[in-house]
Amino acid sequence: MVNANKFRAKMVENGYTQKSLAAASGMNENTLGAKINGKSFFDTREVNTLCDLMHIEEPAEKCDIFLA
Prior knowledge:
The protein is mostly helical and about 70 residues long. It has helices at about 5-15, 20-25, 30-35, 45-55, 60-65.
């Protein structure tokens, strides 16, 4: 499950809103919200895209956010 607080902090740190991050990643805003809130899961492609957009490069940070 995603660590929603860390995900949102990283999103804001990079100047995104949920709406703008969804658009940049090619995802529907409601879908992104459901995945952040643990109602659905990110696939590997989505995680890689979001990490690229939010400049998450360290494996430990990826794990902290996406494997909480």
